[in-house]
Amino acid sequence: MRHFGTSVRRSADQLHLTRENYIERRKDGSLIFSFLPMDEDEIEKHAKGCLYNFDLNMRYFESLSRDAFDRWLEGWLNLHNSFSEIDDIRPYKGVQGEYIMVLDEYKQVYCGCTNNIKRRIETHWNKKMPFDRLVFGSYEYSKLSIDSFRRLDTTRIFLNVDHSKRKTDSDEMYEMEKEEFARTDDKYMLNRTGFGLRGYEVSIAPSNRMQGLGHNN
Questions:
Q1: Taking the CB of residue 44, how many other CB atoms lie within 10 A of it?
Q2: 165 to 62, 97, 112, 190: CA distances (angstroms)
Q3: Which residue intervals of 117-193 are DSSP H helices?
């Protein structure tokens, strides 16, 4: 099986995000941490919080209209007509530019800039999210990470390729992203962070898009 020109190797139950595979583990069953591991009580508490946040996000996605999302995306692409849809990422190895990953089932997009389009998109697909980074901010308001979604959740890809022969530095890439994506409607955006000066990631203001979907609603 191929997806956007690349071979699909994961087992069938790992090709789409589900509640059951959201918290990823190593082959030996252990959790993945980016920093120091938690104790058992912290793990139990955080796991409950992560699944609560997962459920909130799914309720939010279900509340969105597919027709409205399609109209919004079509309008955005018409306004930014330098983006073109592709069905194969292989020719973009080592190519720099901006990319939009569309997750139609969830009515969401993820936007980014990179010096290697193919590698960056495959990193999103293949990365295992550390347990301690599943939530960005609070359990009530955190967006799901694009890296938590699976390969087949990406249904469309649009690119704005930089055809210049020079490498764009971090400050210039930040300006590109800011110009193209700053006015994108947050309700359709999965982005948690943006590019800061010198390539450091900076937090995007906490989203209130899931307000009202919590315990008492």
A1: 11
A2: 43, 12, 20, 30
A3: 117-126, 170-181
Residues 6+ apart with CB under 8 A from 38: 46, 131, 132
| Parallel/antiparallel/unpaired status of strands 2-3 and 84-86 | unpaired
Res 201 pLDDT > 90: no
Report how far residue 37's alpha carbon sits from residue 192's, in angstroms, rounded to the nearest whole number.
23
Per-domain residue ranges for the chain?
39-203
User: Of 104, 99, 68, nearest to 83 (Cα)?
Assistant: 99
Nearest to 184 by CA among 97, 61, 69, 63: 69
The residues that bridge with 110 in the sheet, in sequence order, are 101
Using DSSP, state whether 146 is helix, strand or coil.
helix
With a cut of 90, say whether residue 172 has pLDDT above it.
Answer: no
Amino acid identity, residue 43? I
pTM: 0.85
Half-sphere exposure at residue 169, Cβ-oriented, CA atoms within 13 angstroms: 3
